[in-house]
What does this fold into?
Amino acid sequence: MNNTAFSIKQMRAFYGAKEVIKGVDISIMPNTVTALIGPSGCGKSTFIRSLNRINDLIPSFRISGDIMYRQKDIYDKETDVVELRRRVGMVFQKPNPFPKSIYENIAYGLRIHGLNIKDTIDEIVESSLKKAALWDEVKDNLKQNALTLSGGQQQRLCIARTLATQPEVILFDEPCSALDPISTAKIEELIHHLKQNYTIVIVTHNMQQAARVSDYSGFFLLGELIEVGRTHEIFTAPKDKRTEEYITGRFG
It folds into this structure.
């Protein structure tokens, strides 16, 4: 029985004529954190944005290969993309709360998915904020505009908003790059707790962060996945010289 969350074979991705991902093979296991590291512009963000088809919004984008989620091809024409994005949620680099109240940031998505029972929405708002380690800080101010929160709180609100739609996978695209060290530590601790119930893929430029939060790491370079394996092995005994040079700071 194949128990992978994602199984990806010979994935290639293009913007127009430019190939940005070159024949990537990787399996992503459920209830683990997989970190993707590598220099800027090497394909990491394009890769994770392919996992919930957000790249579809770019007219010049095209993709080939097998991208299977729970043994189903997510690029099959029968795929319900809205449902895929509910199951494979995403948290972006820059916190992007809606210019609405804290409560409405979470309730809004639930209503779009057809939920209109106030008591149920109240429960999900509370449980999502608790899961995102934000409830104690905002529970008395749920009507406050989300844009008045600090950057770290806004990012945790975006995580709560993602959790509210009950995803199975959460994609984090450099979630801490705009945050201070204290907020970063809170997000990392949160990721550690979330993997008990969710599969997590995180793109990060911060190699110490990858070492701290992930079970598996993959090193991207110029659109190729050079090496993937257990994080402690990638960081202490990489098999490829290019991985070693990147991790030790000799290039990139």
